[in-house]
């Protein structure tokens, strides 16, 4: 996770750290290297431009240049700006005052929706909440099987009647059942496609309108970098997402999606997936991630 950026930043900061005096041209040079490191990590170019401008504005002030530890001050500014870029603080799931809280998962096929639905279920079950999963992917019988298996592994209720009901009806019925069973959290696992298509979007809009979810989470494969950001933007236009979960962060050395998506979409990353197992889900803390990147 972020290993490429960690290496690049380590090189940039090696000379700056511990320096008693640095000049404007030292800072210009460091900024240039930070810029290259971010672009190499596949961060969105507009995001990089804005980021560098912000850091520059803060770093060029005399209070930085004339401080006793200018190198450290510069690194601190980069740390603060990285944290701000990723959303500053952790954004929790919005839990409804009148349970069940309904969470709708959406995203492309293979992004990790079903696995992540299971991970979320496991995490909330561990907190003592009653969780139910609903399988609304009626196009692939394997998907119905998968959500049932995941629910069994986690040990939560599941409503996945198969391929004969419409996705909207499945979600509505799941909500009705969840209300009756005093479920705290209902997670709707919707269908994905290999690419965005209008039919899928219409289906998701219908589910949103009839099941009125409290959260609409876009699940994106972090390894797809800027493509994940573009697809997220298309989903956001149609569905007005409430947040993002980035999966496969364990396999993503670059981190371009993680560093761009908040700035491009204006929506928070709420969780990251860090492995295939059902406990490999971490709340996303921008400050901790920034510190991790800067080493
Ligand atoms: P869906 O089609 O969006 O429902 O995707 P799946 O949940 O079936 O996941 C697709 C593949 O990605 C599966 O092999 C998962 O085990 C894998 N996967 C999901 N999340 C993660 C993650 O955070 N890390 C890794 N390494 N693999 C993941």
UniProtKB/TrEMBL annotation:
Binding-site positions, GTP: 107-114, 189-193, 247-250
Domain of life of the organism encoding this protein: Bacteria
Gene Ontology biological process terms in this record: SRP-dependent cotranslational protein targeting to membrane
Record-level GO cellular component terms: signal recognition particle
Subcellular localization: Cytoplasm
Reactions the enzyme catalyzes: GTP + H2O = GDP + phosphate + H(+)
EC numbers on record: 3.6.5.4
Record bears the keyword Hydrolase: yes
Function description: Involved in targeting and insertion of nascent membrane proteins into the cytoplasmic membrane. Binds to the hydrophobic signal sequence of the ribosome-nascent chain (RNC) as it emerges from the ribosomes. The SRP-RNC complex is then targeted to the cytoplasmic membrane where it interacts with the SRP receptor FtsY.
Subunit structure: Part of the signal recognition particle protein translocation system, which is composed of SRP and FtsY.
UniProt record similarity statement: Belongs to the GTP-binding SRP family. SRP54 subfamily.
Protein name per Swiss-Prot or TrEMBL: Signal recognition particle protein
């Amino acid at each position: 996770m972020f290993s490429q950026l960690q290496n690049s930043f380590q090189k940039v900061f090696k000379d700056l750290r511990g320096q008693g005096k640095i000049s404007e041209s030292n800072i210009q040079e460091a900024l240039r290297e930070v810029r290259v490191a971010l672009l190499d990590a596949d961060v969105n170019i507009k995001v990089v431009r804005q980021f560098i401008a912000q850091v520059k504005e803060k770093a060029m002030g005399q209070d930085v240049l004339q401080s006793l530890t200018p190198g450290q001050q510069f690194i601190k500014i980069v740390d603060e700006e990285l944290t701000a870029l990723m959303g500053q603080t952790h954004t929790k799931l919005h839990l409804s005052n009148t349970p069940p809280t309904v969470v709708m998962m959406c995203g492309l096929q293979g992004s990790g929706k079903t696995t992540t639905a299971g991970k979320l279920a496991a995490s909330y079950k561990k907190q003592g909440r009653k969780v139910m999963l609903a399988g609304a992917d009626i196009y692939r019988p394997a998907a119905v099987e998968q959500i049932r298996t995941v629910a069994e592994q986690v040990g939560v209720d599941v409503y996945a009647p198969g391929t004969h009901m419409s996705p909207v009806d499945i979600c509505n019925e799941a909500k009705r059942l969840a209300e009756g069973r005093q479920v705290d959290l209902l997670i709707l696992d919707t269908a994905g496609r290999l690419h965005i298509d209008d039919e899928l979007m219409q289906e998701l809009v219908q589910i949103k309108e009839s099941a009125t979810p409290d959260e609409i989470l876009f699940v994106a494969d972090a390894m797809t970098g800027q493509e994940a950001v573009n697809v997220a933007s298309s989903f956001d236009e149609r569905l007005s997402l409430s947040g993002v979960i980035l999966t496969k962060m364990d396999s993503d050395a670059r981190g371009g999606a993680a560093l761009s998506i908040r700035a491009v979409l204006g929506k928070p990353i709420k969780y990251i997936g860090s492995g295939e197992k059902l406990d490999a889900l971490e709340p996303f803390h921008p400050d901790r991630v920034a510190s991790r990147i800067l080493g």
